[in-house]
Amino acid sequence: MIGEHSITASNQDPGPASHPDTEQQQVAYHVRKILELLGENPDRDGLQDTPVRVAKMFEEMLAGMHVDATSVLSTTFEETSQGPVIVSDITFYSLCEHHMVPFFGKTHVGYLPGKRIIGLSKIARLVDAVSQRLQVQERMTHQIVDAMTAALHPEGVIALVEAEHTCMCARGVKKPGSMTTTIAASGRYQDDYALRQEFLRMIGK
Ligand SMILES: Nc1nc2c(ncn2[C@@H]2O[C@H](COP(=O)(O)OP(=O)(O)OP(=O)(O)O)[C@@H](O)[C@H]2O)c(=O)[nH]1
Ligand SMILES: [Zn+2]
Predict the structure, then answer these.
(1) Does any domain span residue 134?
(2) Subunit arrangement (predicted)?
(3) Of 80, 83, 135, 193, which is the most buried if we count CB atoms within 10 A?
(4) Is the ipTM here above 0.85?
(5) Which CATH number characterizes residue 180's domain?
(6) Rounded to 5 degrees, what angle do the CA atoms 188, 194, 195 make?
(7) Mean pLDDT, to the nearest integer, of 176-201?
């Protein structure tokens, strides 16, 4: 178990490499170092467990790094659907790869099935898998479309992501409330204007 007793002060600690540490313990060790470098006392009451909390938080928020996005979509069903399937307002939290602070918002995914459909929850699981990584919003949007296209071979896929980036709100340019929208598409959603319009209308845009 790690915690206040296993992470010792820098002048006593021979360093992370000498411990038979888990990755979580290694991250916690370095978070403690960062707290020290920031001028904090990591041994004060409120901070004693913070290194481990932060390590666990990164594990949770970056869980998608270890998930193959396409494998999330491995269970599909043979079905001839007549029209598009649109799952809207899928909330997500991601971490901006430039600043390692959250960007978060909603993802809307639509596809026009070919011969197979997918369980609806798997689309939300896909959003989790690609968002729980160090990301940029554009890549996340494309990864959703790429995974859906590879797994289902549909007639087309479209994803629209709208997000607020805390690196733009809480620091730097400081523009709280600004929203970034990204769209990616494959197949018929790339050039069928009516299909794209229908998608936008269905998600309330
Ligand atoms: N395109 C894109 N840019 C992003 C995303 N998340 C953060 N950024 C931007 O990444 C850029 C990093 O720019 P840098 O100049 O290297 O970093 P910085 O000095 O901290 O920039 P400022 O945020 O302008 O203070 C910033 O403009 C961020 O707004 C994203 O998902 N997509
Ligand atoms: Zn950022």
Answers:
(1) yes
(2) Homopolymer.
(3) 135
(4) yes
(5) 3.30.1130.10
(6) 45
(7) 98
